[in-house]
Design goal:
Chains A, B: InterPro entries: 6-PGluconate_DH-like_C_sf, DUF2520, NAD(P)-bd_dom_sf, P5C_Rdtase_cat_N, TM1727-like_C_sf. Chains A, B: This is DUF2520 domain-containing protein. Two copies of one chain form a homodimer. Chain A is α/β, with parallel strands linked by helices and 253 residues long. Chain A folds into two domains: 149 residues, NAD(P)-binding Rossmann-like Domain (Rossmann fold, 3-Layer(aba) Sandwich); 98 residues, N-(1-d-carboxylethyl)-l-norvaline Dehydrogenase, domain 2 (Orthogonal Bundle), CATH 1.10.1040.20. Chain A is built from ten helices and eight strands. In chain A, strands 3-2-1-4-5-6-7-8 form an eight-stranded mixed β-sheet. In chain A, β2, α2 and β3 form a beta-alpha-beta unit. The longest helix of chain A has 31 residues. The termini of chain A are far apart. At the A-B interface, α5, α6, α7, α8 and α9 of A face α5, α6, α7, α8 and α9 of B.
Chain lengths: 253, 253
């Protein structure tokens, strides 16, 4: 049985709380947060506390707060012997000022109120001792079948890759939606295409899956598209991404 | 029973052939194509022909060829009384020179060898007569529960929206993959994130689902990311998309 304290009350903290609570080999003994209002949600799952001096003794302390607050929160844990791990993709392990440091980074986008199956979420671990790593591995493997050792530099790059694959992708969905709305077309018409686009990469590489006018070097279609766009930002994005795709594939045409 | 001839032997023609063949109310009577080799695949499903004069009489002729070839292929059908419809998002209805013209545009990305469930694929119809439209509606509804009337201008815009939601999105997946490979990280780590990103928009709007440094106006993280990118094209894409997201959301910060 691994005992865990979660520090933080946001989206990820909520998802971890729910998952730990239903995992037999994990005992979520406490959630710490400064905001009493936010803590209320957690009190149906476990004990809550808002004073650093009341933080309980545990095998693992998971810091699930915003990147800027990690260092400060870790100061409350200087006297703890358990493994102190943050959950951030972009933050180095050494901002933590604890005896036993680690990183426990679940690579996923978490939405309030939308449950996720942790079993398929990659959890990226880093640690500076074999012993701490063993504890984090036990914790991660209890909730996920995809546990990876990823160092600080790799994790930074992975976080960057995730910005392209998630943040920017979602923004493109938004442009698709805006085009639909302007033309009185339901955005629902695009949704099956969006689903299939993401499904494709389970069986093809993105390179193999690439289609469209830029892929074919079809200048006529690209110019037609550009003439349909009135928003300057959308036009710039269309131009830049088309140019990038064209450049990548033109050797093969 | 609706009788159909497919003209074309590509990806979409194959998927339509498979779907029509297993639909009781549709009789796929022939597939026409110039390339004998490509026709062979179809001969296990129906009759094939490669001479325009041999094209059979049918209720509907579906032209599933590349955009540039639509007009030429439609010339073979001048004497036909059935509805002649193309399947292209970017092509106006009036390139067709047939008596009864129409458009039958399935909005999806089709991959060779990867079967799709047509029932969930939106089919966008256009026609210039009530009678032709009725025939196309019967055909579309026999294979899909999502049949929409979309005119030429709307369809052009929808096709443009699809470029953002599919072609450009897939290219961003490719950048994510490239970043992983360069840093000796398996691209599999990003796949659950990619899946969840597309799943999110079934319950949230893209605007609600937007997260990340640009969404938060977090300049420090954005600069850190930029310092990690050495490829000039990726850097330009990062800058432009971050700027667009920041501009869209900064009023709300």
């Amino acid at each position: 049985m691994i005992s865990v304290v979660i520090l933080g009350t946001g989206n990820l903290a909520q998802h971890l709380c729910q998952t730990f609570s239903k995992t037999d080999s994990i005992q979520l003994i406490q959630v710490y947060g400064r905001n009493q209002g936010n803590l209320r949600w957690f009190s149906s799952y476990t004990e809550v506390c808002s004073e650093p001096k009341d933080i309980a003794k545990a095998d693992v302390y998971l810091i699930a707060v915003s990147d800027q607050a990690i260092e400060e929160v870790s100061h409350h844990l200087l006297d703890k012997n358990g493994v102190v791990a943050h959950t951030s993709g972009a933050t180095p392990i050494n901002v933590l000022s604890a005896k036993n440091r680690g990183v426990f980074y679940p690579l996923q986008t978490f939405t309030k109120g939308k449950s996720v199956d942790f079993d398929s979420i990659p959890i990226c671990l880093e640690s500076q001792s074999e012993e701490s790593l063993g504890v984090l591995q036990d914790l991660a493997q209890a909730i996920s079948s995809k546990v990876h050792l990823i160092d600080t530099e790799q994790r930074r790059q992975l976080h960057l890759a995730a910005v392209f694959a998630n943040n920017f992708t979602n923004y493109l969905y938004g442009i698709g939606e805006a085009i639909c709305h302007r033309n009185k077309i339901s955005f629902d018409l695009l949704k099956p295409l969006i689903q299939e686009t993401s499904n494709k990469i389970t069986s093809l590489t993105p390179k193999e899956a690439q289609t469209g006018p830029a892929r074919r070097g079809d200048e006529k279609s690209m110019n037609q598209h550009l003439s349909l766009i009135s928003d300057p930002s959308e036009q710039e994005i269309y131009r830049l991404l088309s140019k990038a795709i064209k450049t990548k594939y033109e050797k093969e045409l």
